[in-house]
Amino acid sequence: MERRKKETNRIRGEEVELVFRPHPAQTDTSHLPVRYLKTPTHAWIDHLAKYLAIRASLEGNANTSSASGSSQKSVEGSADFSISVATQGGQLVELPGNTTLEQVNENHWKVAKPLELFYQPKQ
Prior knowledge:
By secondary structure, this protein is α+β, with helices and mostly antiparallel strands. It has helices at 2-12, 45-63, 101-107, and strands spanning 15-22, 35-40, 81-86, 92-94, 115-121. The chain has a single domain, classed as Phosphatidylinositol 3-kinase Catalytic Subunit, Chain A, domain 1 (Ubiquitin-like (UB roll), Roll). It comes from Stichopus japonicus (Sea cucumber). It catalyses: S-ubiquitinyl-[E2 ubiquitin-conjugating enzyme]-L-cysteine + [acceptor protein]-L-lysine = [E2 ubiquitin-conjugating enzyme]-L-cysteine + N(6)-ubiquitinyl-[acceptor protein]-L-lysine.
């Protein structure tokens, strides 16, 4: 019975609730809203960075009246945003793109509340 439960969880997958906040180093956060997301734990940081880039691109296009699309950000890669997590000591650690949310949860976030991640556009 226990084996069947583990297999079901692996197939169905676990989900994690995320709270994306603008990185504290950002001086102007008016264009960086807090985002709430529920996603599978096997998602990579690269997936989340690409999601943020796509959202920024869509919202940028919706907020501009120019038809040229010059404000559209590149969504081809995930290099547009860096994502960090707070350690127990309060330091922010930038996460590599090939890290899964399950790894972040196990290594950095050991509390029973939504995972808090910080994002900022890369320079």
